[in-house]
Write a structure and sequence with these properties.
Blueprint lengths: L9 E4 L8 E6 L5 E5 L12 H4 L15 E2 L2 E2 L2 H19 L4 E5 L5 H15 L4 E3 L6 H11 L9 H5 L2 E5 L3 H4 L1 H14 L2 E5 L12 E3 L6 H14 L8 E2 L1 H9 L10 H12 L4 E5 L1 H4 L4 H15 L8 E4 L6 H7 L15 H11 L12 H9 L5 E5 L3 H4 L3 H9 L3 E6 L12 E4 L8 E4 L4 E5 L12 H11 L11 H17 L14 H5 L4 E2 L24 E2 L17 E6 L25 E4 L1 H7 L6 E6 L2 E9 L9 E3 L32 E7 L4 E7 L9 E6 L4 E7 L6 H9 L6 E5 L4 E8 L2 E9 L7 H7 L23 E3 L4 E2 H11 L4 H8 L9 H18 L1
Bound molecules: ligand MGD (2 copies), iron/sulfur cluster and molybdenum atom (MO).
Cofactor: [4Fe-4S] cluster; Mo-bis(molybdopterin guanine dinucleotide)
GO molecular function, one term: molybdopterin cofactor binding
Pfam families: Fer2_BFD, Molybdop_Fe4S4, Molybdopterin, Molydop_binding
């Protein structure tokens, strides 16, 4: 295929969150790409959040894995693929099909995912393919299947705009699904939608909330059980077509309101809002799913919608928002160990036979395979002897991450397919396979509202990288299944998947896109975003509004839920650590970490902790905390804030061995799972916290690479070079030597030393230009990061060692508006000096918040803080 740079923009889909925004990508022919929102894509209608808008900064070849490697040495594709096929074939021959496993990802395209699932479940003959969606959506899948008889998301995004009340449960929509949040915020501004946030933490999403319920951690099932009891008490109509009403009600009525940690008044306000209008949408995400009672929480929510018939009709329904760009596609192809394909059931012999016949498969998996946590246990104890990890970084993101990393390191044969050369997981592989990334590959993804969109190729592959589906198909062919894996184009894979969905549809599956079974390359290339199903029987729309479900008797099912408190805390680990995401980074930062603007919002791993806890533990703001659990240890920057409640601190999941080795929070998280879904309780780790007694703190910038060697460090990329936060318990004997080793520089630095105050400042200059600088102090280094960082890109830098901005150059502080580079200090100053009172006014004054809008909640918070200050002063 020839590529035509600098012609009409390519219509594609964002590779980050499950909103699935349409993107216009215009390559300039010189390696640069201009990114814009696609005005005609139904998910975003031209909007993009800051991560989408910064996609152009992440497309360089820096850090990419450019050729296959065997044992750390570059190898040819033939060598690598032969080795993978041989080792898998031999392991299966000797130890049976269940001695191998695939651990894959909701960031694969549907075509990649389809091929992986077909190879494992139909040809290798094992169910041992599971995915990071186990950590993400498994509880929703289980809840949907229990209630509806199928894993179906009933509603559409527009329901959030048509609703009168939108409840966000365990969802920080403002940061994690920003464009959907903006659609909600716009609807609220236009028609007064009431918004409720149910989250133990006061998140950016609370900016538009009429009510924030900071419930006790894990108490969601109790809250929705109480709502169900209230629904009954107010004798609202229960749907005729629902089973299990009585048992669910009995369990609900037995729920003790004290479990929620909320006041009667808060509960009453919530009930009045939820019951005051039919048009209610309950959006939920990881605060619900990632729990040891995740599936029950989901069903407690679904029960309330089933009980009131508020489902699958405009402006009403439960809405599980998916995290990854193709979490939904993975579910559709059957990528979870306990599913078959096209929403068919692996335990159902008729379903298995139908799929086997369709694939002409020699050996079908006959039972569910190992779910993620169990899979890595099997790797640990040697039951799985060959493992292929594709498009995910489990050495960072699995609970008990240190143990998982050790298990991978101890496995006989590990293959990793990734775009990047250096990740915590690629480091453990015997064979590394370079995958094409976003912009280089062609395929489809399904977003949270069941909309299938094309990702399109507009760049040549980096080095020798190949598409994941092609790599998998090559291995399938080399394992001996030539015909079954003999596609030439992703359109052929998609067509096969669509044809199989027709077989599934005939067996009663909701997922049926058989209209597309005959699709050719040209039609595939021109494919417009569409909602599934897409078949002779029905196209798009909502599910279950007609009262017909996918259960054997066609009736919906309410599930009796007895709320379980989260596992009690051990006295030695008295804090319950909550974990999650920040606004501008994506998971393990292999891509967002390449963007300077995305790295300025929050540049290092942190622990949000309540002032009362901080005072008790003697933790000063900006100091470091040592957090331990029975599974591991982390060192995190202390952020004292009443956004979190006492006893319930929060830490983000993004930092890794590459960016901050002691900031990996999954080292702390236990592998406890929900018994129904197998999803780990990632939001609830028992930990101990104490001050990390650093002898010295450092801040450094450098134009080149740095090799930090100290107890704590965190790296963030800058427009030129990088910045580093450092700390240690032992002071190096010679700071000049230390700095030379850190920066890999030989020359003589300029140095200022104040022994009495323990301050060291040194800088390496070359031709009058700053190469690197290190600032050391006995307390956390207080100086303007943005100013020092800017000096790397400027001539001179004479006031460098002062570390303070010149009078003419105010410090921007932490970046709030990443689009226009506007920091917290500028916004606060403008609010104070110009008397600004609205987000719009700040936008007019500074442009902040007027492009992607991701930072509008934070500007709102600054406005509130400013108004509180003024009120206090008056
Ligand atoms: N910026 C950004 N966006 C992303 C991602 C990213 O990495 N970065 N990742 C994507 C992915 S894969 C996913 S899955 C989604 C996740 O999207 P979200 O689920 O919205 O994000 P999280 O921050 O994981 O967790 C949501 C909230 O759950 C709350 N919570 C914790 N415990 C409880 C509880 O017991 N009950 C309730 N009600 N709430 C609780 C936390 O305080 C947190 O605010 O985001 C997607 N979008
Ligand atoms: N404590 C805690 N842990 C969590 C969570 C939490 O909230 N708290 N959330 C969980 C959730 S919901 C999720 S989804 C997971 C996410 O966790 P992971 O999936 O492990 O994280 P990513 O960084 O997205 O990893 C994707 C990898 O695939 C590579 N990659 C990108 N594109 C491609 C491609 O096209 N092909 C291939 N082969 N590789 C590619 C990237 O370079 C990267 O190494 O984390 C889970 N872990
Ligand atoms: S909301 Fe942001 S991250 Fe999510 S799909 Fe849209 S642009 Fe991408
Ligand atoms: Mo996720």
């Amino acid at each position: 295929m020839t590529l035509h740079p600098a012609i009409a923009p390519m219509r594609t889909t964002c590779p980050y969150c499950g909103v699935g925004c349409g993107v216009l990508a215009s390559p300039d022919g010189r390696g640069g790409v201009t990114i814009a929102g696609d005005p005609v894509h139904p998910a975003n209608k031209g909007r993009l959040c800051v991560k989408g808008a910064a996609l152009g900064e992440t497309l360089g070849h820096q850090g990419r894995l450019l050729a296959p490697q065997i044992g750390g040495q570059t190898a040819s594709w033939d060598q690598a693929l032969d080795l993978v096929a041989t080792r898998f074939r031999d392991t299966i021959a000797r130890h049976g099909p269940d001695s191998v496993g695939f651990y894959v990802s909701g960031q694969l395209l549907t075509e990649d995912y389809y091929v992986a699932n077909k190879l494992m479940k139909g040809f290798i003959g094992s169910g041992n393919i599971d995915t990071n969606s186990r950590l993400c959506m498994a509880s929703s899948v289980a809840g949907h299947r229990r209630a509806f008889g199928s894993d179906t998301v009933p509603g559409l995004y527009e329901d959030l705009e048509l609703a009168e009340v939108v409840v966000l449960v365990g969802s920080n929509l403002a940061w994690c699904h920003p464009v959907l949040f903006q659609r909600l915020a716009a609807a609220r501004a236009a028609r007064g939608t009431r918004v409720v946030v149910v989250d133990p933490r006061r998140t950016a999403s609370c900016d538009i909330a009429d009510l924030h319920l900071a419930l006790a951690p894990g108490a969601d099932a109790a809250l929705f059980n109480l709502l169900l009891a209230e629904i009954h008490a107010r004798s609202l109509d229960c749907g005729e077509n629902i089973d299990g009403v009585e048992v669910a009600l009995a369990a609900a009525r037995a729920t003790d309101p004290a479990q929620t940690g909320l006041t009667r008044a808060e509960l009453a306000q919530f009930f009045d809002l939820w019951l005051g209008s039919d048009k209610v949408v309950t959006v939920y995400s990881q605060g619900v799913n990632q729990s040891d009672s995740g599936a029950d929480k989901v069903n407690a929510i679904l029960n309330c919608h089933l009980a009131t018939g508020r489902i699958g009709r405009p402006g009403m329904g439960p809405f599980s928002v998916t995290g990854q760009p193709n979490a939904m596609g993975g579910r559709e192809v059957g990528g979870l160990a306990n599913m078959l394909a096209c929403h068919l059931e692996i335990e159902n012999p008729a379903h298995r036979t139908a799929v086997q016949n369709f694939w002409n498969a020699p050996r079908m998996a006959e039972r569910p395979g190992l779910k993620a946590m169990d899979m890595f246990r099997a790797v640990e104890d040697g039951r799985i002897k060959a493992l292929w990890i594709i498009c995910t970084n489990p050495a960072v993101t699995m609970p008990e991450a240190d143990r998982v990393a050790r298990a991978i390191a101890g496995c006989d044969f590990v293959v990793v397919s990734d775009m990047m050369a250096q990740t915590d997981t690629t480091r453990l592989a015997h064979v590394l396979l370079p995958a094409t990334g976003w912009g280089e590959k062609d395929g489809t993804v399904t977003n949270s509202e069941r909309r299938i969109s094309r990702q399109r190729r507009f760049l040549p592959p980096a080095g020798q990288a190949r598409d994941d589906w092609r790599i998998l198909a090559e291995v399938g062919r080399r394992m001996g299944w030539r015909d079954a894996f003999d596609w030439q184009h992703p359109a052929e894979v998609f067509a096969e998947h669509a044809a199989l969905s027709g077989v599934a549809g005939a067996l009663g599956s909701d997922f049926d896109i058989s209209d597309l079974a005959g699709i050719g390359v040209a039609e595939y290339d021109a494919l417009q975003p569409f909602l599934w199903p897409q078949s002779a029987a029905r196209c798009g729309g909502r599910f279950f509004g007609d009262g017909r479900f996918h259960t054997p008797n066609g009736r919906g099912r309410m599930v009796a839920v007895t709320p379980r408190a989260p596992q009690a805390l051990d006295a030695a680990y008295p804090f319950r650590l909550n974990t999650g995401r920040v606004r501008d980074h994506w998971h393990t930062m292999t891509r967002t970490g390449l963007s300077p603007r995305l790295s300025r919002h929050l540049a290092e791993p942190f622990l949000e902790i309540h002032p009362a806890d901080a005072a008790r533990l003697d933790l000063a703001p900006a100091s470091l905390a040592e957090v331990t659990s029975p599974h591991g240890r982390a060192i995190l920057r202390v952020l004292v804030t009443d956004r979190v409640t006492p006893g319930h601190p929060f830490a983000p999941m993004h930092w890794t061995g590459e960016t901050a080795p002691s900031g990996r929070v999954d080292a702390l998280v236990p592998g406890r799972v929900d018994p129904v879904s197998g999803q780990p309780a990632l939001k609830s780790a028992g930990v101990a916290i104490r001050s990390f007694a650093a002898r010295w703190f450092g801040f450094a910038v450098c134009a080149g690479a740095a090799r930090p060697d100290c107890d704590y460090w965190a790296k963030a990329v800058l427009p030129r070079g990088q910045q580093l936060e450092l700390a240690g318990q032992e002071e190096p004997g010679d700071w000049t030597e230390y700095a030379r080793a850190l920066f890999g520089l030989k020359g003589e630095p300029l140095m200022i030393r104040d022994r009495a105050r323990g301050l060291v400042r040194l800088a390496f200059l070359q031709d009058g230009r700053l190469q690197a600088a290190l600032f050391v102090a006995p307390e956390p280094v207080a100086l303007s990061r943005s100013h020092v960082a800017a000096l790397l890109t400027e001539e001179g830098g004479l006031d460098l060692l002062s570390g303070r901005p010149g009078a003419d150059r105010p410090d921007e502080g932490a970046l709030v508006c990443a689009c226009f580079g506007i920091g917290v200090n500028s916004i606060a100053r403008a609010i104070a000096t110009q008397g600004l009172t609205s987000v719009e006014a700040v936008g007019r004054a500074l442009r902040a918040g007027t492009n992607c809008g991701s930072c509008r909640p934070e500007i709102g918070a600054l406005l509130q803080a400013g108004m509180a200050c003024r009120a206090a002063a008056e």
